[in-house]
Structure formats: C-alpha cells, structure tokens
Amino acid sequence: MPELEQALADVATEMAERTDRGDVATYIPQLGKVDPKKFGIAAVTNDGRVLVAGDADQAFSIQSISKVSTLTLALGNVGDALWKRVGREPSGNPFNSIVQLEHENGIPRNPFINAGAIVVSDILLAGHQPREAIGEILRFIQFLADDETIIIDREVAASERATGYRNFALANYMKSFGNLNHAPELALGVYFHHCAIAMSCRQLALAGRFLANGGKNPATGYQVVSAERARRIGAMMLTCGHYDGSGDFAFRVGIPGKSGVGGGILGIVPGVASLAVWSPGLNANGNSKLGSIALEKLARMMNWSIFAP
C-alpha cells in the first residue's frame, strides 16, 4: 500500500500547517500543559506494515481510549452479564453527565461514557485489590501492543483524582442504586489510573490491531477475542466512541473509533488496518479536532468507510 504511506504523509503535512487546532483539555491540569501544535498519525495494516507520520512516537495520555481495553477485559471476565449493568446505547449527553443516571436507575447508557467505564472498572476489581486490577489492565495493553515500555503517568492519575469531583459524584450515585459492588473510591482508583496510561500513536495502533483482524493479533496469530466479540466492540466504538459526537464521526469518517480528551483517537478499518491519531486540541464535544479531520480525510483518500461498497 504505497498510497497509504503517501496519504499519511500528506495528511500530517496538512494538519501541521493548520491554525484551527481546538482547545486542549484544562479541567485535568496535567493535560493543559501539552503543546497544541503536536500531531501524530499511525497505521498498522493487517499484513503487518507499520506506517507513521508526524509526532507518532511521542507518548500522550490516552484517557478514554483505554476504555476499549477495559471493556474487552471485562467481557472476558463476565461475558454478556456485563450488559445487565451497562447499556449499549449512545448517550446523546456529555461524557460526564449525571442526568441520565437518575432517569435510568443508575445504569449507564454505555461502557464508554465515564459512568459506564467506572462500572467496568468495578467489574475488573472483583477478587482484586485496586493495584492488581490496574496492573492487569496495563499488562493487557502492553501485551496487545507487544511493548512493555508502556506506562501509567502517575502525575496525570493524581491530577485526575484531585479534580475528579464529577466522577466521584457519578460513582457515589451508582453506588446508591446498587450498581457498584466495591467502594466508589476503589473503582475510581482503577478508573483514574487506566485513563492515565501514556502511549504513542504507533503503540496505540499496534494495540488495536486485533480489532481490525477478527479478534486475532495478525503478527502472532493469537486470538485475543472471538470474531463476534471483535465485531461487537467495533459496533460500540462506532455508535458510542465519540460521546455525543459519535453520530457525526460515523457520518464523516465512517469507521469505528474511540476518542480520549488527551487528543487521541483509535480507529478501526475492519479487515484492513488499525489507526491512531493524536492532536491535543479538542472540539466542543471533547474529541480531537484535527484528529477527527485527519481521519475523515484519510478514510476518504483510501475509501475506507465501512459503508463503502
């Protein structure tokens, strides 16, 4: 795919020149320190090619992109019983909204909004101390990317805990409805730490490749999840992966994706490639502004929409 290498380079060049970069997240103080001029993009194809452009080897806080991995782990632990505690529908509300929880009796709309991911963290805590659950998540991501250098940024985790009042409210509210089995502060400890994992675009694209290949790591042949589960995780990414901007991302880009307020996006082109893009400035929905534009351009250049004939 020589045209893919050129397309990545062209997109990276164009994004580097743009001035409308969005605004970095400041409600987590550590994220507000990131240079908004950064831009990286990576693609890992199912035939084993790793192609990068821009700042693709600089680590950034993956934030909510980690929720794809925690969902994968939790489904492995409890299977479809997970869906009794978390829904599968887009929220239509901001990612940290408490409004729907009241109407829906403490059952979060989906596993990618904050409340849903806190329930997933609670599921991963079963039989573990928080430190053990956090270690399991980190080791799983290291395994997926085949890279033991991936770490948790302790300063970001501490920054999230110090300012995470809304998340404490969500957790306590769900606990009052009986939808957390552990103390809220324990589930939140797991949640804050997995959101603070730092990865580069290259590492992130490598970690996501199993989802582009029917649940199997194309480099090793290891079946991470069944093909059906990979499709269902991809469906959740398409419908819920960009908070209340998920419909617009599906409309413009047309592939499953998961964003994070650190400015990263993981994109999956089923049967073809795993993509990762990073640009710290966010749009009004909390998704990477230039990252979304870059994936839209790349998908159009490569005819990668899942709705393309």
TrEMBL record:
EC annotation from Swiss-Prot or TrEMBL: 3.5.1.2
Keywords linked to the UniProt accession: Acetylation, Hydrolase
Pfam families found in the cross-reference section: Glutaminase (PF04960)
Membrane spanning residue stretches: none
Reactions mediated catalytically: L-glutamine + H2O = L-glutamate + NH4(+)
GO BP term (any one): L-glutamine catabolic process
Residues annotated to bind substrate: S64, N114, E160, N167, Y191, Y243, V261
Keyword Hydrolase set for record: yes
Uppermost EC category: hydrolase
Family: Belongs to the glutaminase family.
Subunit structure: Homotetramer.
Protein name: Glutaminase
